[in-house]
């Protein structure tokens, strides 16, 4: 890798405005590094010596499914953002712009694979058949999880960045052991192992790539050749900090330092993302060790609904990435190839509205849990301190039992003290 | 009944676990061919293979983090952190991930990871090798923390930690690794519950609560006090989270005086928690304030002066004098 391939942004450490400007320019142009792209922004399908064969396997129904999924999750994103604005959610983490990276990779996984997301992977959740309304529990403040990962092999969101990456490697190490045990058992019985091989895929971003846990998990994955795919969505911004602060080389190149393949793929090209991920998961399942995928994409919206991107990046940059929109390019392709007509796109829109209505209603109906469930779930086994505090809480709460019917409401001891102090 | 050291007892306990529980495995730095820097895992890799006794990369967060992943897949990892002062690169994984997984999954997931940490001073070592960070973990809900003080407990507690479906940290008193004692490998006897305190010596004038490395110190202090005509009860706490306050309170109701000693600094420590709880539960039985004996509010000092830092027999006797002066 010659220095001419390094990202164009260089820091002189003097002028932040210049730096931001240079950063924006870097984003405006084509990425300096080669990356796998099959479906260009203009909707024409190119070729790749390794990955075209994966694209060729995709039938029209699957391609339409990719589009339907991306449109559905974008509509969901809009709805969740609206719900936050209406005060129904405490926070929302929008994914708009990253639909191809998430749908393409998620659709490449198989049911027996296990997925560890960060917290923006709503599109991957869709591909794993997680009820999207359940995703909102965490953001409504009624659960720290919301779904049972055992139902879908889609783990809970993890908010401490990169903390899930060693979990993924450990899970993959468990799969390796399961396979050995199954092979030994099958060997004794003179049969082939019954279960299909599984792999793990873990999502993180360009920001999280700087966390030590990513390094440690890549070391472990490499050392034990664990069946894990590291899927990095480089969406260019870690809240307000550009990806160039996290890395001076393409993130995919880091894999070489750990001794496994790293591939940068156009993260807005759902066909290429799907192809590369399918290949990587095959590598992992077949025992060839880990793969790092860097999906080169862009967070078109804010980091969260509490963020204001106008403080740190220009609208021109956002506009240029909107021109690389993952949905538009697939729509162009589907229409040009005669694989989808107006009726299809109309149906997709109607399905999206139906989903939005469902999510709206379900969110309003999400029950607030009883804090007793928190007492119950702190430990698996009985715990005397928890039991003692719960008993105190029950007794304390019982003191308010008549509050609704009592008139007038009696002041508490504390309030009395405050009143006396004020007097 | 077999006589063995604490280190050997843990080794035998781990061996029993690996034999009895096919999904258990050991992970840590230098635990394989070397058998651990304290040889606690000596010979286990040779007998159980590299998939069950895993020499890991030198990365504590990676060790705990991958152990969490293995447990999510149905395995029961037993991690060794080489020294107390080296647990902190794994602190995030322990406190934000391991401790909370069951709770945040609404009870759907369990992560029964065991973490073994040799702790405490008195070995003349260089910095970061003599610390007692148990209070930092005891403050985190979701974790259980136990610490054996003798070989019999060591043999059983490590197995009980693996059997427990909650994450358990086993703090091992490293300066007592070579302490010998009888181990009944057939029957845990009174040690059947690792979360229950043991009254090791009965007395009527004052209670001394200790755990881990200070247990022999407290017993010696009680013996010395007896020569002065004072009857001191000694309790081995055994479990730091949860704490068996019932046993401590019952003793204080009898003796009226309580001294708590640990190597960790007293400020924000386990002794303070015991003092507060006992003052709530047994206020009318107390004849004197609960007195704490522990490390000073300073980084663990250099080895040449650690004797001035560590609670010893005289420090405990001095505290007893103060308690009995009321």
Automatic annotation (TrEMBL), chain A:
Any coiled-coil regions, as ranges: none
Keyword list, A-Z: Oxidoreductase, Pyruvate, Thiamine pyrophosphate
Keyword Repressor: no
Reactions catalysed, as given in the entry: N(6)-[(R)-lipoyl]-L-lysyl-[protein] + 3-methyl-2-oxobutanoate + H(+) = N(6)-[(R)-S(8)-2-methylpropanoyldihydrolipoyl]-L-lysyl-[protein] + CO2
Dehydrogenase E1 component domain mapped to chain residues: 71-349
Biological process (GO), any one: branched-chain amino acid catabolic process
Domain of life assignment: Bacteria
InterPro entries: Alpha-ketoacid_DH_E1_comp (IPR050771), DH_E1 (IPR001017), THDP-binding (IPR029061)
Signal sequence range: none
Family: Belongs to the BCKDHA family.
Stated role: The branched-chain alpha-keto dehydrogenase complex catalyzes the overall conversion of alpha-keto acids to acyl-CoA and CO(2). It contains multiple copies of three enzymatic components: branched-chain alpha-keto acid decarboxylase (E1), lipoamide acyltransferase (E2) and lipoamide dehydrogenase (E3).
PANTHER family for this protein: 2-OXOISOVALERATE DEHYDROGENASE SUBUNIT ALPHA, MITOCHONDRIAL
Name of protein: 2-oxoisovalerate dehydrogenase subunit alpha
Organism field: Arthrobacter oryzae
UniProtKB/TrEMBL annotation, chain B:
InterPro entries registered for this protein in UniProt: THDP-binding (IPR029061), Transketo_C/PFOR_II (IPR009014), Transketolase-like_Pyr-bd (IPR005475), Transketolase_C (IPR033248)
BP GO terms, sorted: branched-chain amino acid catabolic process; response to nutrient
Domain Transketolase-like pyrimidine-binding span(s) in chain numbering: 4-179
GO molecular function: branched-chain 2-oxo acid dehydrogenase activity; magnesium ion binding
Highest taxon of the lineage: Bacteria
Entry keywords, A to Z: Oxidoreductase, Pyruvate
Cofactor: thiamine diphosphate
Primary enzyme class: oxidoreductase
Its EC number(s): 1.2.4.4
Full protein name: 3-methyl-2-oxobutanoate dehydrogenase (2-methylpropanoyl-transferring)
Lineage per the UniProt record: Bacteria, Bacillati, Actinomycetota, Actinomycetes, Micrococcales
